[in-house]
Amino acid sequence: MASRARLDDAAVAAVARYGFGLAGRPRLPEAEEYEDAQGVLVATTEGGDLAVVELPRWRSPGAVRDQLGGTSPAAWVGTPPDDHAALPDRVLALLPAAGLSADSGSLAAQAAAWQRTGRDVVVVHVPVTPGAPEVPAEELAAAYGARLIGSRVEGSGARTGGRVVFCTGLSGAGKSTVAARLVELLVEDGRTVTLLDGDEVRTHLSAGLGFSKQDRDTNVRRIGWVAAQIAKHGGIAVCAPIAPYADVRADVRREVEAQAGPGSFVLVHVATSLADCEARDRKGLYARARAGEIPQFTGISDPYETPTDAEVTVETAGRSVDECARQVLAALS
């Protein structure tokens, strides 16, 4: 049986660049066959040569040239210029998409922006990285049979306008209460908001998960994924899980910003002290954790990794819920 290696999206994009003649052979793990994240065979090695088999996401320059009927249209790389009047009647829009998911809201926003120009636009996603293109814009346009007239590439794609407000803190810190008041303030301002509260998500989206570290991480990632989908379509998601681990919070940030663009993720640390959380422990959870009845309880027998990258730190001591929520609201403007 041939040895097979699974490639991540970045490696598949590198294979595409090689297969399209845009770049040299990429460094890959040793194998005879390579598949993408969905298990589709994308390349093989025969006699040391790398042969591209199929690239489901990427359209080859040859296929694009065939679509254009052998003409040499004007090409623009990235988001359209502000002055649409300067654009010709027909444009080949080449959107750098390596590193972004196929259903990325950033890419959808860019495509929509091109449609609003009123031109006859052919949109093609190309396997180069936004903000750090592996191929110069002029060479990229030439490979697709077009002449370059301009480019404007943003580091992580276009913003969708959606936001994710991700409140983290100890159990009993007041995350849910602050989040609920923030939602009220946003609704009063005419915004469409979805609240993803930790306890409610546990009941529905994450029913069946336990409280092991793996299950807790899965719960937080599920919240992040749903929130990213909301932000991708321009909505606001307010989340209130404990989310004690920095690496998982960072994963959620990357997912959200890949879908909704840079700046779409706002981490809010509800920084209530452990002593205050225990003092207001209406459910008696801390007392049970101290007695050893609840294993792996955050702040007692399991760590809470205090955020060092929070956009907003809310000190709740001596402050009303409304004051805390309005502090977060001010950071969103």
The CATH topology of the largest domain comes to: Rossmann fold
Task: Give the full name of the CATH homologous superfamily of the largest domain.
Answer: P-loop containing nucleotide triphosphate hydrolases
Integer-rounded radius of gyration = 24 Å
Number of helices: 11
Helix content: 25-40%
Please report which band the strand proportion falls in: under 5%, 5-15%, 15-25%, 25-35%, 35-45% or over 45%: 15-25%
Distance between the termini: 58 Å
Let me know the average pLDDT: 89
What structural class do the secondary elements suggest?
alpha/beta
Query: How many β strands by DSSP?
Result: 13
What is the total number of structural domains? Answer: 3
Coarse shape:
flat
CATH architecture of the largest domain: 3-Layer(aba) Sandwich
Please tell me about this protein's structure.
The chain has 333 residues and is α/β, with parallel strands linked by helices. The chain contains eleven helices and 13 strands. It has helices at residues 9-19, 61-67, 105-115, 137-143, 175-188, 198-203, 213-232, 246-260, 274-279, 285-290, 321-332; strands at residues 4-6, 33-35, 41-46, 49-52, 74-78, 90-96, 120-126, 147-152, 163-168, 193-197, 236-240, 265-270, 312-314. The strands form three sheets. A five-stranded parallel sheet has the order 10-11-9-12-13, sandwiched between helices. It has a four-stranded mixed sheet with strand order 1-2-3-4, covered by helices on one side. Strands 7-6-5-8 form a four-stranded parallel sheet, sandwiched between helices. A hairpin with a 5-residue loop joins strand 2 (33-35) and strand 3 (41-46). Helix 5 (175-188) crosses helix 11 (321-332) and helix 7 runs parallel beside helix 8. The longest helix is centred in the last third of the chain and has 20 residues, at 213-232.
